[in-house]
UniProtKB/TrEMBL annotation:
Coiled coil: 223-254
Location of the CUE domain: 60-92
Entries under InterPro entries matching the protein: CUE, UBA-like_sf
Species name: Panicum hallii
Full protein name: CUE domain-containing protein
Coiled coil listed as a keyword: yes
Keywords linked to the UniProt accession: Coiled coil
Length: 280
């Protein structure tokens, strides 16, 4: 609701700037209308004319094509609210930007005020992040803390006032943050790739060792199987030997008994040298 009221009041200021020959000094009636409330009829509390210099400088950095007078008027109408003023200036009509452009400033061909102001970088709590596209050394970032210190000192020495120093410091810090984030991300990616390659080598080595162990286990299993088969065959042969030994012993006993019977038969015969007809 506050943004809508601010937009209506600023639109009336645009119309006044376009039709009045003295754009810098509006008539008393218009001035009174600017100071009037939002339709309630009650007098509004007094406001600082011209706005906060810090807010004006911050908005000036973000909106170089808008005149200083209009920035101050927008802040005044929005109650020195940085967010409302910034949101309104982002939606600034192209014809109004041309009408209130600062003297001597010519926007590039085909670019409006909305195109010149990037959407990112607008923060809350009356803070603004300065664009880093215009930093001359953004393409060749330093690699040591000494170089960063020199850049920061040079930027501070080149500043014309406190607001300019804040804007320059904001640009340097933003570039530094992006550089550190990119460097940390690259180092983390390299470290991840290195660890991944190490783990991959270890995994491949483990696979090779596992394959070798599987082959060794298979060979050992075959040998153990052959050994078991040989042990079974040896046990069977031992049993056969025992059986054969018992048979031999039985045959020897039988043979001895037969020989004794034969000897007794020969001794009991009446005719020596003649055997019984049933004995061959």
């Amino acid at each position: 609701m506050s943004a809508a009221v601010c937009g209506k009041r600023a639109a009336s200021f645009f119309e006044e700037q376009q039709h009045s020959p003295h754009a810098g000094t509006p008539p008393p009636s218009k001035r009174a209308r600017f100071r009037a409330g939002g339709g309630s009829g009650s007098p509004s509390p007094p406001r600082a004319r011209g706005g906060d210099p810090g807010l004006v400088a911050a908005i000036r950095v973000r909106f170089p094509s808008v005149s200083l007078e209009f920035i101050e008027k927008a802040l005044e109408e929005c109650g020195n609210d940085f967010d409302l003023a910034t949101k309104y200036l982002l939606n600034l009509p192209a014809q109004s930007a041309k009408c209130d452009a600062a003297p001597g400033y010519q926007p590039p061909n085909g670019m409006t005020t909305e195109d010149q102001v990037p959407a990112e970088g607008i923060l809350v709590d009356n803070e603004v992040a300065a664009p880093v596209d215009s930093v001359p050394w953004a393409d060749n970032l330093p690699s040591s803390s000494i170089q960063w210190s020199e850049i920061l000192v040079n930027e501070m020495l080149s500043a014309s006032n406190t607001d300019d120093a804040k804007a320059r410091a904001s640009r340097v810090l933003e570039v530094f943050e992006r550089a550190m984030t990119s460097r940390i991300g690259a180092e983390a990616h390299q470290s991840f790739q290195k660890e991944n390659s190490i783990y991959k080598e270890q995994f491949e080595a483990a696979i090779r060792e596992s394959t070798i162990l599987k082959k060794a286990f298979a060979i050992q299993h075959e040998r153990q199987k052959e050994q078991d088969e040989r042990s079974q065959e040896l046990q069977q042969l031992k049993q056969l030997v025992v059986q054969y030994q018992e048979q031999v012993r039985s045959l020897e006993v039988n043979n001895y008994a037969l020989s004794m019977h034969l000897r007794q038969a020969q001794q009991g015969s009446s005719i020596p040298g003649h055997f019984h007809r049933d004995i061959f």
